[in-house]
UniProtKB/TrEMBL annotation:
Annotated organism of origin: Lutibacter holmesii
Protein name in UniProt: MFS transporter
Topology term for the membrane: Multi-pass membrane protein
InterPro entries: MFS, MFS_trans_sf
Subcellular location: Membrane
SUPFAM superfamilies linked: MFS general substrate transporter
Keywords for this protein: Membrane, Transmembrane, Transmembrane helix, Transport
Stretches that traverse the bilayer: 12-36, 48-68, 80-97, 103-121, 141-162, 182-200, 241-259, 303-322, 334-354, 360-379, 391-412, 424-444
Domain of life: Bacteria
Alphabetized PANTHER family for the sequence: SOLUTE CARRIER FAMILY 45 MEMBER 3 ISOFORM X1, SUGAR TRANSPORTER
């Protein structure tokens, strides 16, 4: 079936639900470690508390991708039912997470939140590849990245924004500040609303051969066997992209899990207070704890706001690429390589930066983030069977979650520990990892993946 080229606003509507998905991911990535620390987690234990996120992605995304490939409803389409269900569950989880009374509850709710976000996210990736002709794939994923950048910047700044409006940013020991609770509530509303917008403004193509599609659905194949078979037969380009993804996502997981303790300690000089070091029954000790804890919460807001800048710069990066790719092809390989190099430099500079200049580090990281969210998917979509787009996108997620699992079970602590005991060393490791990811782009040799090749070329 020949797919018609879509205009900017058609692609915008199709991708708008990703605004909500990114609100969920940005709030999770920017503030879950803060919630864990507020509830008493030691900084070395934080990566392990994050293990729920990649584990759920490893399990959920291939299954949802496989199921959505086998789904068709004349009214609801193929992908839309899944990201609608995921949005409802994610919004509920966002409302509950910041009200966690103890650490184990917060860790469990992270598991639920991440699983719900993953139910929504994978079908959105497949939807872009489903609805666009191959010549518009780069353009489509770049527009999606533009929306993700907007979501990252706004959501990362929400606690700071609401505190500027007078919402309290301080709280008793072990209690999440009201500014964080309000921010997560706003995120829940945006998540559901933006996904509903896409559901009601976007149509999907039916299967090309409905009779063949129905026969395929009736087969009694085990979905586990089918997923394993697809893993075994993945194309060479997908494996090479997987190596790039491994180092890229190791770096960003390191940032999400340890940027708050690393930067509040090294850049702002306001580490999280250790409650056991204070006698809270003593008035003077309790007052001293409150002073230190408030300083930590305020610098955490500043770290969150600085992190939001990477969403803003990824948005600018995506906007420039949107204008360019709407008319011309790009060399995806070299765009991705250069972007990852810039992101790696941003992480390395954190060791030397000041609170005032921290945002410039995240500007550089934003170029890497914008490219990570678009270029690998554009390259992948040009190298795989379109009938299996959902399950392939889900399997591709393995290369995202496996490095995060390795990082969470001790990889970050071990590698950064080789550089010393300071938490900031984790950001140095992230920078080195992104530079390695950039160099791995040299492995990509498929001309159609590097840049769309019209038939006959």
């Amino acid at each position: 079936m020949e797919k018609r080229k879509l205009g900017f606003w058609d692609i915008w509507n199709m991708s708008f639900g990703f605004l909500g998905i990114q609100f969920g991911f940005a709030l999770q990535g920017g503030f879950m470690s803060r919630i864990f620390q507020t509830l008493g987690a030691e900084k070395d234990a934080i990566p392990m508390l994050w293990i729920a996120a990649p584990l759920t992605g490893l399990l959920v995304q291939p299954i949802i991708g496989y199921m959505s490939d086998k789904t068709w409803s004349p009214k609801w389409g193929r992908r839309r039912p899944y990201f609608l269900v995921g949005a409802i569950l994610s919004s509920i989880a966002l409302l509950i997470v910041p009200h966690s009374p103890v650490l184990w509850v917060a860790a469990g709710l992270l598991w639920i939140l991440d699983a719900s976000i993953n139910i929504s996210m994978e079908p959105f990736r497949a939807l872009v590849a489903d609805n666009l002709p191959e010549s518009q794939r780069s353009y489509g994923f770049v527009v999606q990245t533009l929306i993700i950048g907007i979501g990252t910047w706004v959501a990362s700044n929400l606690p700071w924004m609401v505190s500027q409006l007078g919402v309290s940013n301080s709280a008793e020991s072990g209690v999440i500040p009201m500014s964080v609770k309000v921010a997560f509530g706003i995120g829940a509303f945006v998540f559901l609303g933006s996904v509903l917008f896409t559901v009601f403004t976007t149509k999907e193509y039916p299967p090309e051969n409905m009779e063949e599609f129905e026969k395929e659905k009736q087969k009694k194949n085990s979905f586990v066997k089918d997923i394993i078979d697809n893993i075994g037969s993945m194309p060479s380009t997908m494996k090479k992209l997987g190596v790039i993804q491994f180092f890229s996502w190791f770096a960003f997981f390191t940032m999400w899990s340890l940027a708050n303790p690393a930067l509040t300690e090294h850049v702002f000089k306001t580490p999280a207070p250790i409650e056991s070091s204070y006698d809270l029954t003593n008035t003077d000790q309790a007052l001293a704890f409150d002073v230190v804890n408030t300083a930590f919460q305020e610098s955490s807001n500043s770290v969150g706001s600085a992190m939001g800048v990477y969403g803003l710069s990824s948005m600018v990066f995506a906007l420039l690429l949107t204008f360019y790719t709407s008319k011309r092809n790009i060399n995806r390989k070299f765009v991705h390589m250069g972007s990852l190099f810039l992101g790696g430099l941003g992480f390395l500079l954190m060791y030397y930066t000041s609170p005032e200049n921290l945002k410039y580090c995240f500007v550089l990281i934003g170029f890497a983030w914008g490219s990570i969210l678009s270029m690998p998917y554009a390259m992948l979509s040009s190298a795989v069977d379109p009938k299996k787009m959902g399950v392939i996108m889900g399997i591709f997620n393995m290369f995202i979650v496996i490095p995060q699992i390795i990082a969470s079970v001790g990889g970050i602590n071990y590698i950064s520990g080789l550089l010393g005991d300071e938490a900031i060393n984790a950001m140095t490791v992230a920078g080195i990892s992104l530079i390695i990811a950039g160099l791995c782009n040299l492995l990509i040799t498929d001309k159609n993946a590097i840049s769309y090749q019209p038939k006959g070329n």
